[in-house]
Every structure is written in C-alpha cells, then in structure tokens.
Amino acid sequence: MKYTTFNQVNNNPLTEPMFFGNPVNVARYDQQKHQIFEKLIEKQISFFWRPEEVDVSKDRVDFQKLSDSEKHIFISNLKYQTLLDSIQGRSPNIAFLPIISIPELETWVETWSFFETIHSRSYTHILRNLFGDPSSIFNDIVENAEIKKRAADISQYYDDLIFATQLWQTLGEGTHLVNGVNHTISMRELKKKLYLCMNSVNALEAIRFYVSFACTFAFAERELMEGNSKIIRLIARDENLHLTSTQHILNLWAKGKDDPEMAEIAEECKEQATQIFLNAVEQEKQWAEFLFQHGSMIGLNKEILCQYVEFIANHRMSAIGLGQPFDVKSNPLPWMNNYLSSDNVQVAPQESEISSYLVGQIDSEVNADDFGDFDL
Amino acid sequence: MSKNNDSFMVTIKDHKTVEHSAPRTLLETIELHQIEIQYHCREGFCGACRSKLIKGDVEYTTDPLAYIDDEEILPCCCIPTTNIEIELAK
Ligand SMILES: [Fe+2]
Ligand SMILES: [Fe+2]
C-alpha cells in the first residue's frame, strides 16, 4: 500500500490496529485507542532536559586521574552508547512511522526519537569537555570491531523491516525481483518482521545500556566523573520510559488487545523473541569482557557485571512473558537502584555543580526536611 | 480516597506480615522492614517493583504507566485500602 502523508479516507482511528491499518490522517489526541501512549508522551515531555544544563567541567580533572584501564572502560562505554543512540535517534521514526495507524502511537514514536537525539547531543557535550576535539573517538565507532559487531546485530532487524516495507509500499504483496534477487512480500511476513524488530528494540533498551550504566555509576560511587553520571541518570530515566512503551506494544499484541494476527505471530515467534533476548545478554557479557581486558575498576569486575546483566534480563523478560531463564536471585549491584530512581535525578545532595539558570531554580527549592536537625 | 490515618496489614509471601500506614507508599513500607525488593523509578513508569496482589485492594497515588498484568501492582505508587497479601518478584 502506497504511503500517504494525509490519508483522505474518513476512517475511525479508534478501530485501527497500531500498525498496518490505514495511514494516520488527523493528529488528534482528544480520543485514543490506546491511552497509554498519550500518557507516555506527556511523561516524556515532562522529562525534558538539555545536556548543557549539566556542568561536566570537573570530569576533565577526574579523567586525568583514571588509570589507563579505567580510561579504556569509560571511553569504550561512551562509544557504545553513542552507537546505540545514533541508531535509536532515527530508526523508530524510519521503521515504524510509515506503518503506524493511530495518532497517539505516531506521536509517541516521534517524541521518543527526539529524546534519543538529546542523548546523542549529550555525548558530544561530554566528549568535547574531555578532549576538545572528539573526532578520533567518533571515528573509532565505525572502525572498532567490537562496536561494529553490535551495530550489525541491532540494525539488522530494523533494516529488514524497512526494506520489506519499502517493497510493499511501492510494489505491494507478491514476489518481486529486485537487482537479481527475489523477495516475497506478504502481510504476514511484514508483521513477523515488525514483531521481531519490536523485540530487538525492546531488548536493546532493556539490557544493552545497563553494562555501561553500571560502569558510569561505579565511577560515581567513587565520586568520579559525576557530571557524566548526572547525564547518564537523565538518559536512564528516559530509557526506562522507552522500554515501558515497547513492553506495552508487545503485551497488547500478545494478549490479543490489538491486531488478532499479531497475537498469533507472538505465539508463533516466541522462540525467536527469546533468542533475540538471549543473544543480547550474550553480547553484553562479551562487552564486559572487552571492557575489562586491560584490568577491572574498583567496585566492579566482569563476573559481577555479567550477573547483573542476567538479573536485569530476568526482570525484563518476565515483563513480556518470556519467563526468567537465569538463576540469579538477588540484585548483585544494589547501589544501581539509587542511580536509576527518579527521586535522585533532580536533587541529590552529592550532586556535581549545575550551571544553568533553569536547573538552578529547581535546585534552590528547599524542603522543610532539609532542616530536620537544625535548631535555632 | 482512603483516610490518611488508615493503617493496614501487609502479608508478604515467603517473608512476614508488616503494618502499613499513611503517608508511606507500599514500597516504602516494604523497605522499612528491610525486605529486599527491586525498584528503579519509584514513580510508576518503569515496572521494576512489579508484584503480585494475592488478596485485598490497593489504590494508586500516581497513575501507573508501566505495564502490569491484571493481578499485578506497582508498590512504588500505591497504598493498600484493605489488609493485603502480596508476592514480590523473584
Ligand atoms: Fe537513548
Ligand atoms: Fe531509548
């Protein structure tokens, strides 16, 4: 079906499926088929932040004090995160927008992607502070074998869906010969590609970020690189919201609350979905190995980081009905929770200096509790 | 809305029974008794504290955005309105 930027069919968006129905026409939010996406949009907008609001200048001094192996850990993680957000800043838009059929989901995807571009901008902010000219770091992202391996695995599901959608939009269902290769396009296959892609995005935001988050917060536990940690906390808060959105999409499908064919596909492809998750876990463990190849950092080593990946994976997988395949009972890095809590994002006492006027205002709010032990 | 001075008993499967009183959230009550519970956002959008409600009723203080199944609750943003029995995620 050819895409149109304003579908002139007078359809009822309340009866459209999330994907592969009519293209969206009127961007209206007074009524929603799935109210959750409207709520997520509001929440995400309320999280708005700018990287420049966070003063990272003290990190430059801290960075010089890090050992070579710690520098390797810090910079490698930033490269990996830059890769992830480069992909996430464009891919949900390009892969999902052409096939979305309800306005609240369309706007959620646009809002989500926009925040990914804030994340990308924040890496430039961090790196520019550390190096002045961060070109060599950025250039290495397309050279480094460890990072390229991950990029290929993540973009594969997006690229597959995007290509199939393009063929469907221009040539429709059927078998099409393109550059000497036959491609069979059917709605069922398109929906399967969408299902697998959504699982891959879910796994990405569920666990792929957490090895590097753990390293960042382990530095912060030692009061090092705290400007960076403040930024990563803001990013982690956004990522949690993104994760919630793909969990909702997957569960709406699986529970038959949207397109009934997607419920069948969810059942049919459960094994593949599980495998996508398990592969991501495996790759994250390999990443931990790569990070610590020149030595560990205080408070963190490869073993404990791998346990943490398994612990997080159990939680994330059970949220979408994939069970808890790993045998880790308690949280191996309990201090992580303090950094992942929204309470601590805005006003934590040990926070590094914040330079902006806007955030300064928030910080100057004083709680009666702050003076609990203060006697006049 | 329940009255602010209400207090209810919370039975946590495989742990113990504790008393909940306002204005704490259910999560804060569980933490107060040193029972390990997973949490991240503490405001209902991440789902890390997702637990099973076996008996009784709760009321949300913040609209929960995280995905929860019919028999599940988010302790970080709810309070009991009756005596309740819950099971924490493993
Ligand atoms: Fe991001
Ligand atoms: Fe994200």
Describe the structure.
The complex is a heterodimer of chains A (376) and B (90). Chain A has 15 helices and 2 strands. Chain A is mainly α. In chain A, strands 1-2 form a two-stranded antiparallel ribbon. In chain A, helix 3 packs across helix 5 (135-141). The model of chain A is unreliable at 347-368 (pLDDT under 50). Helix content of chain B is 8%, strand content 31%. Chain B has 1 helix and 7 strands. The model of chain B has no long low-confidence stretch (mean pLDDT 91). Chain A binds chain B through residues 36, 39-40, 43, 237, 240-241, 243-244, 247-248, 251, 314-315, 318-319, 324, 329-331, 337, 340-343, and chain B through 36, 38-43, 45-48, 50, 63, 65-67, 89-90. The complex binds fe (ii) ion (2 copies).
What is the element layout, followed by pairings?
The complex is a heterodimer of chains A (376) and B (90).
Chain A: H1 35-46, H2 57-65, H3 68-96, H4 103-131, H5 135-141, H6 145-171, E1 174-178, E2 181-185, H7 187-208, H8 210-221, H9 226-254, H10 260-268, H11 270-291, H12 302-319, H13 336-340, H14 343-346, H15 357-363
Antiparallel strand pairs in A: 1-2
Helix pairs in contact in A: 1-4, 1-9, 3-4, 3-5, 3-6, 3-8, 4-9, 6-7, 7-9, 7-10, 7-11, 8-9, 9-10, 11-12
Chain B: E1 7-12, E2 17-21, H1 26-32, E3 51-55, E4 58-60, E5 72-73, E6 78-80, E7 84-87
Parallel strand pairs in B: 1-7
Antiparallel strand pairs in B: 1-2, 3-5, 3-7, 4-6
The complex binds fe (ii) ion (2 copies).
The site of one fe (ii) ion has 6 residues of chain A, from helix 3, helix 4 and helix 9.
